[in-house]
Amino acid sequence: MSTFYGEYNTKIDGKGRIILPSSLKKEFDTANENVVIIQKDSFEKCLNLFSIEEWEKKVEKIYDKLDPDDRNQAKLIEQFFRNIAKLTIAENGRMLFPEKMLEYANLKTSATFIGQRNRIRIWNAEELEKSLAEIEDFGQSYQSNLSKLT
């Protein structure tokens, strides 16, 4: 299982290609993976990148909770799968992102990658700052949500 941590900034070329930061790429190299899943985030204007292994775990949970033979649930499943794409990581770490994904996350010339253990979030820097500003006080939020865990 690949584990991702840290924040990294990278450029986007005119063809919509982004180079995976080298320390994140090493995780995929170690796991001998060169195909990943990219997903539009359901709550934020960012993208989520998963290894195939982690993605399969997520899909399994969805099918454990939703019935594809129920009309409303089937529509939810369909919408969920419309918002993903499979990408190949080239030898040099470059990935070609679908234009609709870049547009959704407002990614034009640069991207910020944030490792979150089993996924990588890909942000436009301004969108990231707006999202983080919603947490008024990180220390207070940490204490109320996580202090019992440490």
Q: Can you put this structure into words, describing what you see?
A:
The chain has six helices and eight strands. The mean pLDDT is 89. The chain is an alpha+beta fold. It has a single domain, classed as Chemotaxis protein chec (3-Layer(aba) Sandwich), CATH 3.40.1550.
Please name the fourth-level CATH homologous superfamily. Transcriptional regulator MraZ domain
The level-1 CATH class: Alpha Beta
Q: How many strand units?
A: 8
Low-confidence stretches: none
CATH fold field value: Chemotaxis protein chec
Q: What fraction, in percent, of the residue positions are helical?
A: 25-40%
Q: Which second-level CATH architecture applies?
A: 3-Layer(aba) Sandwich
Distance between the termini: 24 Å
Radius of gyration: 17 Å
Number of helices: 6
